[in-house]
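To the team - adenosine-5'-triphosphate complex, inputs and output below.
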Amino acid sequence: MEIPKYVKEVLAALEAAGHEAWCVGGCVRDSLLGRTPEDWDVTSSALPEETLAIFGSRAFPTGLKHGTVTVKTSGGPVEVTTFRVDGAYHDHRRPDSVSFTCSVDEDLGRRDFTINAMALNLRGELRDPFRGQEDLKLHLLRCVGDPDRRFQEDALRILRGLRFSAVLDLEEERETGAAIGRNRLLLADIAPERIRVELLKLLCGSNAGWVLESYPAVFGVFWPELLPMVGFDQRNIHHCYDVWQHSLLAMTRTPPIPVLRCAALLHDVGKPSAFTLDESGVGHFYGHAKASVALADAMLRRLKCSNEFRERAVRLVEWHDRDIPRTDKGVRRALRALGEEDLRLLLALKRADNLAQAPAYHGRQAEIQKGEEILDRLLEEEACFSLKQLAVSGRDLLALGLSGPALGEMLDRLLNQVVDGELPNDRAALLAAAGEAGVTRKLRRKPKMP
Ligand code: ATP
Ligand code: MG
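Output:
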């Protein structure tokens, strides 16, 4: 992948003013892999004030303390950071101080992994003092320098590293892997928001199942609720995997959508606490979905997920154990409760959950397929499943004399009747039904005392 023109212009302007300028980090790694980089970062010998002067009104001092200036370009913002080395670390999070240097190699030396410690300039020269290109070819995740020291400086690197393994399909070099395990407890010092960002990217990686299976204790630092799943024998013919393996298999069989992957990982997290064994030695998990809901909710709150994200994930966990809707009415009800997007996610979760059971029970796939076909047809027919689509509105009911909570209740009731096929979604029919119901309600109301 070529350096895009808008980034080349930034590099060229810095060089024209007599400075060194390189693309650096993730963008170099991704372009060597033929992946499209998320953003293009530039590192330069220019001091922040010099960068500000070169780009004038297009430059914004977004992180001067760390030497970062953001340059607005036609292709989007480009971050230009002065070559720097980090001072001592005391809190396992960030350096106490940073200082600028004239050497790009020194700047590369402060970076976390060899694959992230490469720089590329305008003429296509690659600086790669830690042999990151070779590690990329070997699919190896390796710290720059001593892994224990690097994870002790900034414990988030533990999770960043596993994120790169999951997304780029890497294996941890032996020392790096061992240090990840040894230093995992330091993750307790990292802000939950930063953990969440890395975790959600990790869960969407093609290699996420393998990473979670290899390092459960790392994830157990912030989500100890996961640990009872590991090795938990289900003692049931439906299952040939333990709860942890089953959850990981289900997760990797869902499309890489963060809320769905989260729900898949957590859908059975309540199973160990719901386990019972019957007299013939068969395991059961009655009420496990409810137990999973409570745990998943607490886990997602802990990582400060948005309310919307948490509620969606938890709803998927809650619904995962319900019967697959296979009738028009059932699918319309599910649509009413979940909306199209989340119902599709639920069906994807059901598919994956079933595929992660013993092969003899994969027959469920046909039922899920049927549910999907009904869903597609109902959507094509523009079936009514939300208040927005209902042929009468609140205003119509106001005109009938309804107001306040009674009005909302009536709308809900009409929608339920339409969803259940008891009324057509037809204005006249709905108004007639509302009028009738309203009148009977009024008649039933006790007369006021004089
Ligand atoms: P992404 O594809 O998610 O953007 P990235 O590797 O580019 O991945 P960024 O957070 O954009 O990640 O960081 C850019 C570069 O800065 C990294 O490639 C790495 O060289 C360096 N870097 C980022 N975070 C750290 C860290 N915690 N410790 C050391 N170096 C880091
Ligand atoms: Mg990046």
